[in-house]
Design goal:
binds ligand MTE, globular, five-stranded mixed beta sheet, about 20% strand, alpha+beta, about 280 residues, binds molybdenum atom, Sulfite Oxidase, Chain A, domain 2
Length: about 280
């Protein structure tokens, strides 16, 4: 396959976000228009978050919810999820093919017919397997966003894929109870973290669940209107444009939910674990 930008074979599919996602998106757009205060305690306080914090039940013998916030702020509930922002989107005509950057975990040829997405549910060792068709059956989301590499370059790319949040609403593997992961009303038993690995486990990234359920976090199968090439992560890669390219794992093999920060290739090499920008 070449890396030329191809025109799409058919007009872009109408986007049909799930209802709850449409609400999340509207809320996120509204928030992004305002200056974003940040997710620190100051931001929470300014938005009535203190009242929310202090009204929390005192579960598991933890004397004060603040302890939990400081230990793992991704455990924050809906108040936290609403404080999101969107990465800027660009005219599709500005999209370019990015360089093929980073090939850890892509050594072997990928057998597209044999490939499966393996998902290990939260609180279980069982994994469930999905085909690319399963992912494509979810609402197709298209977005033109900037891919920013920590090396200092960035490029505008048009992506298409399924929202991870739609996947987890349809296949509720991110909660112990099997309740769907609704970003607006996250269940109390939602996993705080998600890890992703290439099939050979050579490259791996970790995300907090808030980032994972962000409306622009996609399981992508198309770049600039064409199926992903192998070097860009075929058949399925992560795109999450509020984070640097290091988090955009190419060729997803396994997704697993966790209580603690999953291992992260570049964090092990000294980069910021969150890698947001
Ligand atoms: N499997 C895998 N995914 C990866 C990497 C890698 O080395 N291996 N590198 C990352 C980095 S640092 C960047 S900038 C982007 C680049 O994506 P691109 O090759 O599509 O431009 O892929 C990310 N995903
Ligand atoms: Mo990168």
């Amino acid at each position: 396959m070449t890396d030329e930008i191809k025109s799409p074979a058919s007009p872009p599919a109408p986007q049909a976000p799930l209802q709850s996602e449409a609400v999340v998106l509207a809320e996120a757009r509204r928030r992004s228009r305002r200056s974003f205060i940040g997710l620190g305690l100051a931001g929470l306080a300014g938005l009535g978050g203190w009242r929310w914090l202090l009204s929390r039940p005192d579960d598991a013998g933890i004397p004060h919810p603040l302890r939990k916030v400081l230990d793992a702020n991704s455990r924050l509930s809906s108040a936290y999820f609403k404080e999101t922002r969107l990465a800027p989107e660009f005219a599709r005509s500005r999209a370019q093919t990015p360089r093929e950057n980073g090939d850890v975990g892509l050594d072997d040829e990928v057998d597209l017919d044999a490939w499966r997405l393996r998902v290990q549910g939260y609180g279980t060792t069982k994994t469930q397997e999905f085909t690319l068709a399963d992912v494509k059956a979810l609402p197709k989301i298209e977005m033109t966003t900037e891919l920013k590499c920590i090396e200092g370059w960035s490029v505008v790319v048009h992506w298409a894929g399924a929202r991870l949040s739609d996947f987890l609403a349809r296949y509720p593997l991110a909660t112990r109870s099997g309740r769907p992961a609704d970003p607006l009303n996250p269940p109390a038993d939602l996993a705080p973290y998600v890890g992703m690995l290439t099939p050979d486990e050579q490259y791996y990234v970790g995300l907090d669940i808030h980032s994972a359920l962000h409306p622009q976090t996609l399981l992508c199968y198309e770049m600039n209107g064409a199926p992903l090439t192998s070097a860009h992560g075929a058949p399925l890669r992560l795109v999450t444009p509020l984070k640097y390219g290091i988090k955009h794992l190419k060729r997803i093999g396994t997704i697993a939910f966790a209580d603690t920060r999953p291992k992260d290739y570049w964090a092990e090499l000294g980069y910021d674990w969150d890698a947001g920008h």
